[in-house]
Amino acid sequence: MYTATMRYSFKPEVFEVACGFWRNLVLEEAKKAPGLVRMQFLVAKPTALAIGTWEDKSYAEAFMRTGVFKRLLEHLVGLTAAEPKSELWELDSFWQSGS
Questions:
Q1: Which residues, in sequence order, are CB contacts of 21 under 8 Å at separation 6+?
Q2: What is the topology classification, in CATH, of domain 2-82?
Q3: pTM, 2 dp
Q4: Residue 56, phi then psi, degrees to nearest 5
Q5: Regarding beta strands 47-54 and 2-10, do their DSSP bridges make them parallel or antiparallel, or are they unpaired?
Q6: What is the DSSP string of the chain?
Q7: Per-residue pLDDT at 99
Q8: pLDDT at 29
Q9: Residue 23: closest CA among 59, 48, 2, 60
Q10: How does pLDDT run along the chain (99 residues), one tens digit per residue?
Q11: Where are the chain's structural domains?
Q12: Angle at which helices 57-65 and 68-75 pack, to 10 degrees?
């Protein structure tokens, strides 16, 4: 599995609007993406953390090529306090209740 994260710092006064753009543009597109295992969006105003877990790195790369994040960034102009920060992760350990 392959996990990529994107950390967003939004301006507090537009936090809900910015989060709405992420949900409407990224999450809705991700639901249709091949190879997606899980997409999460964690919030702690004014910061948000998007976590995408994919079957393989190639699926994450294909999703990025759709231009979804370029479209998101166009909508976020003036709403961020800093540039979004991307991080890439490899699964080392995992536990889930019921598995």
A1: 72, 75, 76, 79
A2: Alpha-Beta Plaits (3.30.70)
A3: 0.88
A4: -155, 155
A5: antiparallel
A6: -EEEEEEEEE-GGGHHHHHHHHIIIIIHHHTT-TTEEEEEEEEETTEEEEEEEESSHHHHHHHHHTTHHHHHHHHTTTTEEEEEEEEEEE------TT-
A7: 60
A8: 94
A9: 48
A10: 899 999 999 999 999 999 999 999 999 999 999 999 999 999 999 999 999 999 999 999 999 999 999 999 999 999 999 999 998 887 788 888 886
A11: 2-82
A12: 50
Residue with the two structure tokens 């910015």: 18
For residue 12, give both structure tokens: 């507090």
Rounded to a whole number of angstroms, the distance between the first and last alpha carbons of the chain is: 16
Q: What is the pLDDT of residue 82?
A: 96
